[in-house]
Each structure stands twice: as C-alpha cells, then as structure tokens.
Task: structure prediction
Amino acid sequence: MTAEISTAKIYLGSPFYNDAQRERVTKARKLLAQNPTVWQVHFPFDQNFVDPEEKNPEIGGVRSMTWRVATYQNDLNGIVNATCGVFLYDMDNIDDGSAFEIGFFRALHKPVILVPFTEIENKEKEMNLMLAQGVTTIIDGNDSFEKLASYDFNSCPADPVVGYKII
Result:
C-alpha cells in the first residue's frame, strides 16, 4: 500500500452570502483538514481585498473598479495555483461566480469536485448539462458530505454525475 502524501492544493469555491452557505464552508474546511491528501486549502473570502478609497461598499452593492479588478485577479490566482477545485454548490440559489470558476478550472484541465446542496426536501434532482458534464466528481452534499475527509485529492478519480435530470 502506498503512503498517502499531502500534495493537493484545494480551491474551495462557494457562495458565502447566507448562514447555511457559511456553515457549509466551515464544515468543509474541517473535513478537508482531516484528509491526508490535502496540503493546502485556499478559500477566496480569506483574501478579501479592501479598497481604502471605497466608502460604505456594503450599501447599494456598487463596488469600485479597484475592488472588482483585485478581487477577480485574486480569485483567478487562487484557481491557477490550485491542483483541483472543490465547489459547495447551492442548488437552491445558483451562483454565477461559482459556475464561472468551475468553467475556468476545466479550461485549465484541472479536476473539479462538485458538492451540491439543497435545503428543499424532496426537491427533484436536476442539473444543467454544462455543469454535470464539466465536473470530474460529484459528492452529494446532503448525503455524503463527509467523503471530503477521505477522497483522494492527489489523483481525483472520476465519479460522474448520475441520478440527476440533466437540463
């Protein structure tokens, strides 16, 4: 048996706008910290750029060009430096930013592990074709979230999307 070595550099992508999304990130970080193949986890919100010229950026949602450019570049740098992406995908509140980041990962020929979640009981499982075909592996967030602690991020074996209606 080969010894597991921590070499994987994970980009942890997730919307971070409500309590449920923030709790998922906290749990995912704990699970990834237990994984013997994970060396580093990059979470974009940890590198939040602050534009000192912005006044009350949380009011009105309009951000400065300086903030937008720096935030975009920081996220792309995180993707480029990662060996793979893990995305906590909120199926109830689809996030365009996460979809873009997944596409960027795949354009770089890097594996993507998708962890979809829903808060809606008995919701029909459906997924966009580009997302379903674009990810390397799917780990069901509602049923199998704990697999993040044991998944082999060094080799990222494929486990394609099944059980979803593809739209």
